[in-house]
Amino acid sequence: MKIRTILIDDEPKALAILEEKLARSFGQIEVIKSYRDPEQALEELSRINPQLIFLDIAMPRMSGFDFLERIPDPKFEIIFVTAFGDYAIEAIKHCAIGYVVKPIVNEELETAVNNAMRNIERNTTHQQNDFLLNNLRVGESENKKLVIPVDDGLIFSEYNDIVRFEGETGYTRIHFTNGSSILSAYNIGYYYSVVSKKVFFQVHKSHIVNIGHITRYFKDGLIELRNQHQVPLSRRKRDEFLAIFTR
After folding, report:
1. Does one domain contain both 158 and 114?
2. What's the rounded Cα separation, in Å, for the pair 214 and 235?
3. In what order do the strands lie in the sheet with 98-101?
4. DSSP state string for 23-87
5. What angle, 0 to 180 degrees and rounded to 10, lies between the N-to-C axes of helices 86-93 and 125-137?
6. For the domain that residue 104 is a member of, what is the CATH number?
7. Does 177 share its domain with 113?
8. How far is CA 57 from CA 10, 11, 82, 115, in A?
């Protein structure tokens, strides 16, 4: 099955390099058209009806995020192409959306393309794009949402519904306010890299807690949460943890 694909980047050299890499390594990717002007891509989007878009973030007249905001109901898979640092990548990783960093490394491109094809098969792209747009619109202190990769797909959750993350031998158990929990195929380091540090705090190498759900701190190094769970607080984290509540 061929995947209808368009490329959007204001740099002609970057477009040429990406198109050459895709043609050489991914026979299932059919590049319908490459665009230097995102406005033109918007005008032709409904006619082409792409399944996958490689989208540069840093374009002078319209950023990649602005491009998405102009589309009422984006149902295509996205792989962002960025030279940016943490801000752009954090916004994307929250929603389990693919990205590659310029200059593009072949291994990273292969991972992003394989994940995109898997998402197209699962038909999960619509929800992921909705979550990304929501997270771009809200501030750090508001209730952002998180996409949770699990063995058989994706789970979508609001920050406020998550009490804590607990590492379990390369996996992560996520505990929710309704008393349920799920085991994610991703390790706890992944979750620490994508969640907001204004909402969550890593109290121990195996535990990340939602600050808003903390009810008590015990001097012997335990923290109690609203669901009555108690988790250890690492000694080296104590000063940083207590400073949160005395700012």
Report:
1. no
2. 17
3. 29-35, 3-8, 52-56, 77-82, 98-101
4. HHH-TTEEEEEEES-HHHHHHHHHHH--SEEEEES--SSS-HHHHHHT-SS--SEEEEEE---HH
5. 130
6. 3.40.50.2300
7. no
8. 10, 12, 6, 19
Looking at the fold, whether 104 and 163 belong to one and the same domain comes out as no
What's the one-letter identity of residue 95? C
Whole-angstrom distance, CA of residue 198 vs CA of residue 180:
24
**162 and 106 housed in the same domain:** no
Q: What is the pLDDT along the chain (247 residues), one digit of tens a residue?
A: 799 999 999 999 999 999 999 999 999 999 999 999 999 999 999 999 999 999 998 787 788 888 988 888 888 999 988 875 545 566 576 566 788 888 898 998 998 899 888 888 887 666 677 767 666 665 544 566 787 877 776 788 888 899 999 999 888 999 999 999 999 878 888 788 778 788 899 999 999 999 999 999 998 889 999 989 999 999 999 999 988 887 6
Domain count, the chain: 2
Token reading at 190: 């992944």
Please, what is the angle between helix 12-25 and helix 106-122, to 10°?
70
Closest CA to 185 of 151, 213, 220: 151
Q: Are residues 25 and 107 in the same domain?
A: yes
Listed residue (127, 122, 77, 68) closest to 98, CA to CA? 77
Which of 86, 103, 136 represents a domain boundary (last residue)? 136
- Residues 72, 186: one domain? no
Enclosing domain of residue 123: 3-136
- Mark whether 9 and 126 lie in a shared domain: yes
> Do residue 89 and residue 176 come from a single domain?
no
